[in-house]
Amino acid sequence: MTRIAVVGNNVAGTTLAKAIRDADVEAEIHIFTDEPVPYYTRPKLIGFIAGTVNDDKILFHPMDWYKKNRLQLHLDSKVEKVDGIGHRIFVEGGWLEYDKMALANGSKAFMPPFKGLPKDNVFTLRTLEDAMRIRASAAKAKDVVIIGGGLLGLETARALATGFPDLKVTILEFAEHLLMRQLDHEGAEILQRAIRELGTEVVTNAETEELLGGDVATEVKLRDGRTIKCDMVVVSAGARADLSLAKGAGLQVNRGVVVDGSLRTSNPDIFAVGDVAEFEGKVWGMIPPALEQARIAAKKMLELDGPDYAGTVPSNTLKVMGIDLTSIGKVRSEHDPPEEGFEEIRAVSADGKVYKKFVVKDGRMIGAILLGSKKEAAKVIRIIKGGEPVEQMISKLSDPEYDFD
Fold it and tell me: Which of 115, 252, 292, 330 is close enough to 210 for a disulfide, judged by CB 3.0 to 4.6 Å?
């Protein structure tokens, strides 16, 4: 009987464990997490803060799901060390031997080294415990500042504005516009205008220098000297892969734990999936790659036939501040000026609330932005992932009403 240890009970770890069970009814599978509760999706933390997801709805699977699938879940069990040579992990004061193991321990919220830290009312959002602390603080606050205008920062702002309508919310973005990875300048302008109309302030080109105050932050000071009043701050400055176990085990690491197409690390019996894994220089940090990696790694860990991982076309379809947004593939050229055969086609609705951008290279669509509309999203994603020629529709893409039928 094969004994498998999975470190991390997140989307990657849980999916991996279930995929292994589906492929091998006999395997002994252990899942370790340092959290006191089973797996929950991080997007549900937003609903939890907003008050739209109750405590009893936060879990993705009930406890009996693990029992039904014969997955041995170890809560409050921090893995402190991995001995790759000895095929064992150290947890709760003892060693557990394994045949194969997977690192799915994800990433940690990044806290930039701002002057004035630490402070009692400055938070990051990564865990359920973080969400509980944010919600408790928001109930007493009047002015909250969100440092970071990425997806998580915007969703946190929406959650606070929804759950605590009397709060004044200000988003500070270091770059020239919000969502630099998902949007171009034109799309970001439309989004920022819509966010302001909802009552949330957006400040771009805002480089935070210092958090003023004593034990609690009272103002955020920017590099250019401006200050923004606050009695609560949420820092959303991205996440970094948790490399502590990998480094201790002597695995090859870079931005993440380096893996090959089998999701195998530099130790042949240790695999890595999800936010902690780096493939061909990329750490994806998104749910779709985590799911794909977990399902591929399950077969590789059991030495079953299956395709290698070849990377994932980045795709996000979600609501940002209640506004539909799909961003897939390459949304801008990596060259200035753009390379030959590269074309950007834009369409804006008459009321200025819907923005579409299609990126075409050599007659094929390689990326797109759909803001304020989602009806074409599935079709556009299929076209991009399928690599279909689009020459016949190029002249129609500038029509905001074009629906790809």
Answer: 115
Amino acid (one-letter) located at 33: T
DSSP string over 244-281: HHHHHTT--BSSSEEE-TT-B-SSTTEEE-GGGEEETT
Q: Is 189 left (phi over 0), alpha (psi -120 to 50) or beta?
A: alpha
Q: What's the average model confidence in pLDDT over 247-260? A: 97
**Cα 153 off chain centre by:** 11
Does residue 139 sit in the same domain as residue 182?
yes
Question: Model-level pTM?
Answer: 0.89
Measuring CA to CA, how many Å separate 69 from each of 16, 17, 73, 76, 300? 13, 9, 11, 20, 20
> Based on the domain organization, do 225 and 330 belong to the same domain?
no
Q: 3-state DSSP call for residue 156?
A: helix
Asked if the structure places residue 52 within a domain, the reply is no
Q: Is the pLDDT of residue 90 over 80?
A: yes
What one-character-per-residue DSSP string does 159-188 give?
HHHHH-TT-EEEEE-SSSSS-TTT--HHHH
Rounded to whole angstroms, the Cα distance separating 336 from 340 reads 11
Percent of the chain whose pLDDT exceeds 90 = 75
Strands (E), 330-390: 342-348, 355-361, 364-371
Residue 118, preceding bond cis, omega within 30 degrees? yes
Minimal CA–CA distance to 59: which of 34, 78, 41? 41
